[in-house]
Write a structure and sequence with these properties.
single chain, alpha/beta, Isopropylmalate Dehydrogenase, 2 domains, ten-stranded mixed sheet, two-stranded antiparallel sheet, 12 strands, binds glycylglycylglycine
């Protein structure tokens, strides 16, 4: 069996981590008896600087029908972030109805959390982030530019269907994990979209009587991600709140360099996209020290999504095994100054 994978390394260290992770993914796939046929798309900021757009006009059509997309990162120091994000990553998420963004945060054995008293295995949560609308709906406008009475309006859009998709995925995960669901909103201050969100959580929750539902406002949730991260299991949040909480989740579990994500099309009619949570990290680009593990773990999520769970598990346990080994190479974000290549070479040996 061969899967058709669109590879979009993107910008900065996105290029480095995708190139490094690819042979690891291939080795795990070969072991499990399948292969990955890649088509590489050199879309991103360099293309924007040369041609004025992050991807071609028919970019979405060229991705349609693939089994999955593996993306590195977007962001360039010479281009405003809203241009790069809206030029590549957000259109893919939106056009392909990747309504559910799943972002696990796991504190692996051998990894140090910046939080005192937390060790390997103590934190194991997953955030379900609404991924195509909410605060990133791209609805608004800016008028009277440069005048004192300049005004900008940025609207958040919450549809019942979009909310239900992510909430249902979160309840399913909570059921599977045998844990609880934390619903994060700001419905005391945002009385329309967020109250609709709470209503949907209550309605869908009736179908999952065994799941304990906790409600938190995002300010309290942020505090508790630092104060008691071990008590979270499945968290569901809007696009913006999920984006913020998952950076927090990544750092309390040791590093942004370990945080994977899946942007899932729940209907299965378009490809889903897998990417490390981290961005293009221009400060370390070209130094060969980017941590490839978030991309490898995103590859494990991609394998699970393709129904190749054995290969996914093998990848994740190779990563866990490496992190638990105090003598294994690590990149500087984990406190050691080994390079990207040393980490993937070691990892291949553990598969
Ligand atoms: N690999 C993910 C990436 O490039 N992230 C940069 C970023 O700005 N992400 C915002 C988002 O995930 O919505």
């Amino acid at each position: 069996m061969a899967y058709d994978i669109a590879l979009i390394p993107g910008d900065g260290i996105g290029q480095e981590v995708v190139a490094a992770a690819r042979p690891v993914l291939d080795a795990a796939a070969a072991d499990a008896g399948f292969s990955l046929d890649y088509e590489r798309f050199d879309w991103g900021s360099e293309r924007y600087l040369d041609e004025g757009s992050m991807m071609p006009d028919d970019g979405i059509d060229r991705l349609r029908g693939r089994d999955a997309i593996l993306l590195g990162a977007v962001g360039h120091p010479d281009i405003p972030d809203h241009v790069t994000l809206r030029g590549l990553m957000l259109p893919i998420r939106k056009r392909f109805n990747q309504q559910v963004c799943e972002r696990p945060a796991v504190l692996y054995d051998g990894v140090e959390s910046p939080l005192r008293g937390y060790g390997g295995g103590d934190i194991d949560l997953v955030v379900f982030r609404e991924n195509t609308e909410g605060e990133y709906a791209d609805v608004g406008g800016r008028e009277h530019r440069g005048f004192d009475h300049e005004v900008a309006i940025q609207s958040a859009v919450f549809t019942r269907q979009g909310t239900e998709d992510v909430v249902r995925a979160a309840f399913e995960a909570a059921t599977e994990r045998g844990g609880k669901l934390t619903n994060v909103t700001k419905s005391n201050a945002q009385a329309y979209g967020m109250v609709l969100w709470d209503d949907v959580v209550a309605e869908v929750g009736e179908e999952y009587p065994d799941v304990e539902v906790e409600r938190l406002l995002v300010d309290a949730a942020s505090m508790d991600f630092v104060r008691r991260p071990d008590e979270f299991d499945v968290v569901v949040a809007s696009n913006l709140f999920g984006d913020i909480l998952t950076d927090l989740g990544a750092i309390v579990t040791g590093s942004m360099g370990l945080a994977p994500s899946a942007n899932v099309n729940v209907e299965g009619d378009y490809p889903s996209m897998f990417e490390p949570v981290h961005g293009s990290a221009p400060d370390i680009v070209g130094q060969g020290v980017a941590n490839p593990l978030a991309t490898v773990l995103s590859g494990a999520m991609l394998f699970d999504h393709l129904g190749e769970g054995v290969a996914g598990e093998r990848l994740e346990s190779a990563v866990a095994d490496q992190l638990a080994d105090a003598d294994a190479p690590r990149t500087p974000d984990l406190g050691v100054d080994a390079g990207t290549e040393a980490v993937v070479d070691d990892l291949r040996g553990r598969l």
